[in-house]
Amino acid sequence: MSIVVDHWSDPLCVWAFVAEGRVDDVLARYGDRLAVRWRVVPVFGSVPARFAHGAWKDAGPAGRAEATAKLAARFGVSGVTGQVWIDDPPASTWSPSAAVAAVRLAEGAGELPGGATGRYLRALRHRFFAENLNVARRSAQAETAEALALPWAPIAAALDDGRALAALWEDHEERVRLGIQGSPTWVFDGGRAMLYGNVSEGVLRATVAELVAGVEPGASRC
Known about the structure:
alpha+beta, Glutaredoxin, four-stranded mixed sheet, 10% strand
């Protein structure tokens, strides 16, 4: 028996990027008892609006780049400059989020191998933060799939016919129902437990360990 885990994140979220080591740790320890679903929560709907009159207005692109680099360094992730926010910022996270949703649909239909969604999401995020690539561009999304040896045709089909956007909308409705505040968020067993934000490795590991123990033979889930 496995615990269903929904991992919610934005492809452009630096907090999700620096937390990937913690995700790896949990999956290495308990992956055989976790059924992980990679869900998308688009936080940056309009990047131009954030710079024009939103939270990033005062700092501007240079300030955003500096904050990104500092945060990555603080959590031991080297080589992150945030320069993409200056040189070629994506206009919206909905574009790479739709690509992730398209991969998830194709994986679910058996058109892509198991685990493709998580690999693709992380690859997009790595290319954005580590390579300063604007992953909102369809060309970057296709190149990322190619680098992972994932056929692009089923992904493009889900993007072109609107199924990927429909999946994003369904994620949005589920996000509202669960009261998810942002990225990254772990939701365990349909909402039995939830961890939001930059939770420590110890808290994450302890939470998963307790939940996993609760599904062992003889344990009570009352």
